[in-house]
Design a protein that fits this description.
Layout lengths: L1 H37 L18 H10 L8 E4 L5 E10 L9 H35 L4 H15 L3 H12 L13 H19 L10 H8 L2 H14 L4 E9 L6 E8 L1 H12 L14 H5 L3 H4 L4 E6 L5 E9 L6 H38 L13 H14 L6 E9 L6 E10 H21 L4 H8 L34 E4 L7
Antiparallel strand pairs: 1-2, 2-4, 3-4, 3-9, 5-6, 6-8, 7-8
Length: 507
């Protein structure tokens, strides 16, 4: 009986376990259904990749930089040959849509504003760099400061021997104007900053030839006088900043946007300073480049977005300054088209003046700062980008420049609005300017001799002023040239458009 009873208990237990096992999936299924009812499956919402719904112009810049053979990136960097560079971008909106008859002029202004924004960013970066360099160097002995300056200049592109000589000039006690090594506005301004800093330290009872406490250095750097001097030095460091690449895009009848990538190296500094001072012997000769005709006769789609002044080399290794400009005829009438060509030529000539005039204006400002203790009327030009642009433009408009030649002209209908547009490319090189100056001097000498002036005196009268070149034969005009008066606008349709210009070849 015991055995039968035990077997019965075992069978009952087995049946109970089987029942539990059969009911368990049903319980789990019910729990899952309840959970699904309480917590529905999460489906993430669709999020637009951009605010505008189209590819941002900054994305196009980043993509272009990633694919650049020199591995360029925004900010301070090092080229493959060991030279340092500074790369910055600027953007600006086109204030009217492509359907507006003023659109081409508005594009020109937008590219100018984008370049101004890039230069402003360069100045802010360099001002921070100068403060950081001074803070670091004055924490070390004077011999170490010379070494650090020499290393910095060498990275910028100067030969080791020249970099050391300039570093020694920067760190001695002489006035800035006494050193022939400090010819460029940037180096001259750095020497002024060093001298002003040393004077302020001496006033505070500190010896600037010895290591100085960081707090004392920062206290001097934060004074209004030093901040003003640093701003001048920073802007001087940014001379030679040139457009590397330009981008633009529009969205049909909406307002568009443009962007400029700008780059600066020690080479661009040297070229800008040498060209603006007419010290043609200071301009280095590079290796053979590409003939100018091949550089400017680009596809129309590329020319549409190629703007500004660019340094390049011709097939003989001579450095050439190219300027690209555009204008819109008010109609397709040949007379209106020729009028637009004249406007474009005036704008292109103004860009050459602007590029060279920036160095001239800064050299004048640096000298004024060296000879006085305060900025006076100049201070606004170094705290506001628009004021700085107006100051440079005022100098550039009056700057006599010879040797500008037309290199290319083109016309098309812009894809964004099917409106007519014309473009001009001009070139300026030192050899052409020097030749024009010599020819003018010979002509004036001959005319003076015919009038009875002794040959020696005639040659002296005909000699161009230092730092200037004669403007004989040059079209007049500044950066504020306006387009011809327009008739009533014709109906147009705005089309989505993305443009990309030609890259700068030499920097």
């Amino acid at each position: 009986m015991k055995k039968s009873h035990s077997l019965q208990i075992a069978r009952s237990a087995a049946l109970g376990l089987a029942l539990i096992a059969s009911l368990a999936p049903l319980g789990y299924a019910q729990d899952a259904q309840q959970a699904q009812a309480l917590e529905p499956e999460f489906k993430p919402p669709v999020v637009a990749n951009t605010i505008s719904g189209s590819e941002p112009i900054q994305n196009r810049i980043n993509t272009w930089l990633r694919n650049h053979p020199d591995g360029l990136a925004l900010g301070q960097g090092t080229l493959k040959d060991g030279r340092s560079y500074f790369l910055v971008s600027g953007t600006a909106a086109i204030p009217v849509p492509p359907t507006d008859p003023r659109w081409v002029a508005a594009r020109n202004n937008a590219f100018t504003k984008a370049m101004m924004a890039a230069k402003g960013e360069c100045v802010r970066y360099q001002a921070a760099e100068i403060s950081s360099e001074m803070s670091s160097e004055y924490s070390a002995p004077s011999s170490e400061r010379t070494r650090q300056d020499a290393e910095r200049l060498r990275r910028q592109g100067l030969a080791a021997e020249g970099a050391l000589r300039i570093a020694q000039a920067l760190n001695n006690k002489a006035r800035a104007s006494d050193s022939p090594m400090l010819k460029t506005a940037a180096l001259y301004a750095e020497k002024i900053a060093t001298n002003k800093f040393g004077d302020e330290m001496t006033k505070r009872g500190l010896d600037p030839s010895k290591p100085i406490d960081q707090q004392a250095v920062k206290a001097v750097l934060s004074t209004q006088s030093m901040q003003q001097t640093i701003r001048v030095t920073a802007r001087a460091r940014c001379t030679g900043l040139q457009a590397l690449m330009a981008f633009e895009q529009t969205k049909g009848n909406e307002r568009g946007e443009v962007a400029v990538l700008a780059i600066s190296t020690e080479l661009t500094h040297q070229l800008a300073d040498a060209m603006s001072s007419n010290e043609f012997t200071l301009i280095p000769k590079g290796g053979p480049g590409v003939p100018i005709a091949r550089q400017v006769e680009l596809p129309t789609a590329t020319l549409l977005t190629t703007v500004g002044a660019k340094l390049t080399r011709d097939e003989n290794g001579q450095y050439v300054l190219l300027a690209f400009a555009q204008a819109a005829p008010r109609s397709s009438n040949p007379q209106d088209v020729q009028g637009a060509y004249r406007v474009a030529r005036t704008l292109a000539d103004a860009q050459i003046r602007q590029f060279l005039g920036e160095s001239v204006a800064l050299a004048e400002d640096v000298k004024q700062v060296d000879e006085s203790k305060s900025f006076g009327d100049l201070d606004g030009a170094y705290t506001n980008d628009d004021s700085a642009y107006q100051r440079i433009q005022a100098v550039a408009t009056k700057l006599p420049i010879a040797g500008i030649q037309q290199a290319h002209a083109w016309e098309a209908r812009h894809p964004a609005n099917n409106g007519p547009i014309v473009g001009v490319v001009v070139q300026w090189k030192a050899s052409a300017a020097a030749g024009a100056a010599q020819m003018r001097a010979r002509n004036e000498t001959s005319a003076a001799i015919e009038q009875g002036v002794p040959p020696a005196a005639a040659r002296a009268q005909a000699q161009p002023a230092q730092g200037q070149a004669p403007a004989q034969g040059q079209p007049s005009g500044g950066g504020n040239a306006a387009e011809p008066a327009r008739s009533a606008p014709q109906p147009r349709t705005g089309n989505p458009y993305s443009g990309q210009g030609a890259t700068t070849r030499d920097f």
